[in-house]
Sequence to fold (221 residues):
Amino acid sequence: MEGQRLVNVIFDLDGTLIDSAPDIRFAVNKVLEENGAAPLDLPTVIGFIGNGTSVLMDKVIAARDLDRERHGALLERLMDFYEGATSRTTLYPGCLDALDTLREAGHRLGLCTNKPLAPARDVLAHFDLARRMDTVYGGDSLPQKKPDPAPLLAAMRDLGGGPTLYVGDSEVDGETAERAGLAFALFTEGYRHVPVAEIPHAHAFDHFDALPDIVAGLRAG
Fold:
């Protein structure tokens, strides 16, 4: 339609497209089991998600009073269990249909997550998401991680620049979009740790059925 424009749509992964906390908890608790420490429950692990695996391990070490000097070794073991862990992960309802609707409308899609690239690609392949993404940035793709805007801006450049919407579930994602100067759509059913009102956003939605209309509104604008 005349006057409309295509919009790049870049997504976070954990807590946005996928509910992966059960697999993350599995990996964390395997490390704790090896070190004679008690397991962590799911709400606690969800509270640790958002700033990448290194920060996650910092919080696990603090929660179970493990030796901080072993952070590197513990993180390496976490990654041993984390890579390929997909059996407990699920897609959020309506996610695939929304992605396909956006692609059919001509929009280019990308991923910008703090999840390390290897496990991110594992889960993308497991759910047939990889072919739907035109670019993918993990937490170790660049020296910077979110909320630094560098990975998000790099993904936007890969998609050709122009109008871009970032879709995420947390205060980290909201800050990243704000620092990148991009519109942000907040998925409210993920892993945020603060109220919706405290996260800067242009749009909020609780089911992926709503996302194509949000993007259509940006396209018309």
